[in-house]
Structure prediction request, 225 residues.
Amino acid sequence: KAGVTQTPRYLIKTRGQQVTLSCSPISGHRSVSWYQQTPGQGLQFLFEYFSETQRNKGNFPGRFSGRQFSNSRSEMNVSTLELGDSALYLCASSPTRSNYEQYFGPGTRLTVT
Amino acid sequence: QKEVEQDPGPLSVPEGAIVSLNCTYSNSAFQYFMWYRQYSRKGPELLMYTYSSGNKEDGRFTAQVDKSSKYISLFIRDSQPSDSATYLCAMSLQGGSEKLVFGKGTKLTVNP
Prediction:
């Protein structure tokens, strides 16, 4: 089975712009979670979707949003980019409603200049 | 106090050593405990998960949970250079829709 795929892998954007990141979960997985990873804060939970519904949301500003499509693919969007948004954005999928078994993609490295 | 504390290391050991990685946590309601391995420039890889207290073994890896002390450990026996990575612990309240809370990771280097 193919793993979680994320596109693009690398992205450079300018402050104030917006960005959309894409995630394709493992086939059959209906739960998709997004995380931000930085050296200072580590892995921080952004949000989680199951069957197109957002089930949980982390403590991030409203500039961070996401959605999930009927085929379980997910996108996250960051508007009005700030320098502090530079990070590795990771997507993870889970085969069940439970999140203790998550499989991560390689991430999208976003650099904001 | 952070919910999950993990010594960032770095930890450097010779090949063949037994490695002990640890996390402490403050929320006694955590029920599921996970260990992930992350190689440089890669996403985290799930090594194993345990529910509540006790031990779980998978090959050279053993996970231990001591809920009374709010302390979890990952032991790696006969460590190999390929084990060199950052190890992240993670926890969740119920394993359902609750989010995972991660430690910041311990960087391990196994020297040949």
